[in-house]
Amino acid sequence: MGKETSNHEIEDVESILKSLGVDVENGLTESEATRRIQSYGLNAIPEAKKHGILQIFLDQLKEPLILVLVVIGIIYFLIGTPFESFTVIIIVFAVIVIEVYNVKKAQISIQALHSMVTPKTWVLRNGSLLEKSTSVLVPGDIVYLRTGDMVPADGIVVSSSGLYIDESLVTGESYPVNKVSFDEPETKPGANMHRVVSGTLVVQGNGKFAVTSTGLKTEIGKISESVKNHKDIPTPLEKSLNKTARLLIVIAVFFSALIPLIGYVHGDPLDQMILMGLSMAFATVPEEIPILITITLAIGAYSLSKKKAIVKGLTAAQTLGSVTVIATDKTGTITENAMKVNHILVGEKLYEAAQKGNTSFLKSAVLATGNLEIEQKFSEGYKDPMEVAILKYAINSGLDIHELESEYLITGRFGFDSNIKRASYVYSGHDGYVAYTSGAPEVVLSRCTSIMMDESSNKVKSESDLKIIRDAINEVAKVGERTIAFAYKRINGQAEERDFVDSDMIFIGMISFIDPPGKGVKNAVKLCQNAGIRVIMLTGDYPVTAETIGKMVGIKNAESTLTGDQIRAMPDDELSKAIEKTSIFARITHDQKLRIVKALQKNGEIVAVTGDGANDASALRAAEIGISMGKRGTEVAKEASDIVLEDDNFHTIAEAVFEGRKMQYTLKKGIRYYIAVKISLILILLVPILLIIPFPFMPIQIIIMEMFMDVGALWGFLKERDEPGILHAAPQKRGADFMDRPMIISILTSALGVFLAVTFIYLYIYYSEGDIIQAQTAAFATWILSQVILAQNLRTEREPVSQRPFFSNWVILSWGLIVVGALIVITVFPPLHAIIDTSTIEYRNWVLIIIVSVLSSSWIELRKIIISKRKKNSPRLSQQ
User: Fold this and answer.
1) Where do the domains of the chain lie?
2) Which residues make Cβ contacts (< 8 Å) with residue 662, sequence separation at least 6?
3) Phi–psi pair at 466, nearest 5 degrees
4) Under CATH, which number does the domain 341-514 receive?
5) pLDDT tens string 461-505
């Protein structure tokens, strides 16, 4: 007799069902279900609390940068002119509105991700089967399951008819698990066969279960709750820019207090000096840095969404460009996850699948996998890829499945057990009882004593036979094929003891499958590696198969493999060293994936990791960039990840990283320009303080520059096309500062050029002509023109702008023309002179202003031209 579930185990389950008041025949009443919802809550994972627009607006007012601007706006309103006050208020309000919009948009995006969950299930209430929202399930409900259903809660199986559930997204086990009623004497007694878990998928059969846990009390709910407690760590970009912003704020506050004090000592009107100090603070407070970052990343995120990568948060978009390692799954990400029969081994002879299969062999293969109800399986959306591949191949090879169904009746099932890696089925047919087994080749071989040579003869297994078979198995495994072997034996009557059924068997043969690399994956891997990004593969598959797939897609060091068993035996320090030269990790578990991520981080890498299962959540959270699969990923994985791939393809991961790289370069250009302009303004206003002369700008002029100059130029940078070679530059290592030394030098030299141009024009006209208004207007014009030319020169980092088509960036060109046009209007149109404190600039001064403005940053373009010519003349440099 078979090994049955013990009475003690049955009593434990029965006591749970009794405590929940389970009625298998009628289910709960609606009134009782409603009462239990009040007690247990809805069967849903609560989302993070979302603030309304008003609360978001108030939260923005608490930000230090915004607070400074609000205080300045209030003071301007009290002592400034109506025009000045209105201008300041408009700018402050615009900054806050943009931030509110971005926060709200992010909330909507997250909500859209949650809406991907299937909301309905069939539940027994008041003796009737009703379709209900999964959110209203409560402990004690009886829920029906069919092929293709997602299990909506945790529970205990009370009825099963060939019920198989894919639990890979929770346990990591790739084979479906047979689920049986808690009181049924089946193959493997124990809670794992009697219980179902929320979020898993029914791939075969049907049944019903009693709900025992819902919402946060489910296994997935517990994982989700731990994920929500994770706190985001500021990115290197945020840390660097926050440090820079604090420095600029200190400088702004210092000079805004110093200017009125010096003016008061010199006898200047106190209110004018206060406004000048506030204007200085208003122009130098870096309130637009968050806007620049947000706009850049929002545009990048939108671009990624068009490429089927949904970015859940802008923090992830910041980090994408810094990724140094992509740790990717194999199945469905590197490969298509579409199994096809590629070779068959009949006895000791290996054939290509194109030669069509041996009918007798294929009959055995279909019976060994327990799949006769072909039409029903396909119509119900059967999911097991290898078994579907066998069925399709058998039909295409001429096997009559319907005839097979009429000849054989399943009388016993011993479902796949991950511990022993095999499954067995017992049939009754016209020629008596026969048992078939399928599973891992080495396991099936170990259960056999004979080998089938043809339909009528067998021979006793020998070591030489085993070598031939193992060589054939290794041959197909080396080309990336997965394998499943089959065996049979005839028995007297229906057997219930598994060890008897699948022992002393006759080896039939093997089928191998290929899961080919996805379209474009090989090229994407090459692009990543050329860009200095290391690609490693993490898989539960066999080492040989993993290595072969790695080589097929061009992963460097694909011949270097670590297995889960090897990793388990390694201390963390040893793993960190071994991981530096290893690209393929095979037969690994979810906890080992987390160890690999942490080892990479310890080595200074910035890691992007993929995952689709609930148990991947910890690795997805630990990595700088967690990437989940939109098609097959669990909601827990999606919640834990930073990016969701709509197509589950590695090519999309590469596209996302490259888009992140582009975003970083755009940010660098924008921030370089923005901070250079701020520093130059501080230096320009410092000279009059030292020389005890009037300031070159009036408060209203500074406000106008703040309103129209920075944002327009920054928007132009966003529209600049990519530069050649950007993707080939090595990514920054962990700990590298966004504001590195080359960038700081570039900012300071750019600021110095603008400062010298404006100061020269102002002092020259002030001392040579003695006309303070003319000198201030000329300085204002030089300031505007110098910024326009600086922005043009900073559009590219390596490629000379002069080598690009004139209309290659219509945004920055239009902005420059509008700014210059506005400058001409306010200097030649008398009615505006009184409002903006300007005058008509004399012709000779215009000539000088244009020459000096062009020279202020022309060295930037000249440097790029020289380097470009050197690279053309030097093959070595041209490769950099």
Assistant:
1) 1-229, 233-308+656-721+739-878, 320-336+518-648, 341-514
2) 300, 321, 722, 726
3) -60, -40
4) 3.40.1110.10
5) 888 889 999 999 888 877 768 889 999 999 887 667 888 888 899
